[in-house]
Protein: TatD family hydrolase
Organism: Amphibacillus indicireducens
Amino acid sequence: MFFDTHAHLNVNQFAEDEEAVIKRALDQGVSKIAVVGFDHETIEKALRLAEAYPSIYPIIGWHPTEAGSYSDQVEEALIELIQTHPIVAMGEMGLDYHWMEDPKDVQKDVFRRQIRVAKQLEIPIVIHNRDSTEDVYQVLKEEHVEDIGGIMHSFNLTPEWQDRFLALGMHISFSGILTFKNAIDIKKSAQVVPLDKVLIETDSPYLAPHPNRGKRNEPAYVKLVAEEIACLRGMTVEEVARITTQNAEQLFKL
């Protein structure tokens, strides 16, 4: 059985057919899906989905492109929700220097604040990193992320960077990008990542794996990511499913 550790079934792209999407995932052996809320609206929807479907586990946090709207009130609300709901991780948090909705110093401050909340609540974190690898690494190192651990979501870097994040106690999660023919560095990373630190995800509705690239992604397609890892590692898909599900369950304390 597969565990899609990062999906956004709480966005508008799934508003019309969420039930059918979840059924297709179950039919493909995807028994668990982590749905990530990243602002007020998507957090509320993630919690609603988790209440409605036993296969869904909520993750909540504040996305770096929303950093400018983070406040003491937002932080207090996040703390209360994590303390009162079965939330398995905090995120996605991090830095995004591609869209640059807010200045770097604002993004870093919100990132650090969320890490400190997660440490206080003893919950792992989920990291968004876009065009900001050096600074993401530095913040995680300075904030001693190894105390709680977490996930480098949709990992797309070299084995050398992978080793640096692994040394901080992070898990490495591969998305549909791994299946792209030109993803040479990511394929190399997937070949050498320690098996007790590897996870799989879709990041639905984004980053659909080959041969569905360019279409709406959905949790059922996480099997294609597992198949790519199996091919790269000389393993069976069943082995990849078992190992990655076990890793996620241990990290999320399920």
In short: The chain has a mean pLDDT of 97. Residues 104-121 form the longest helix (18 residues). The radius of gyration is 17 Å. The chain has one domain: 2-251.
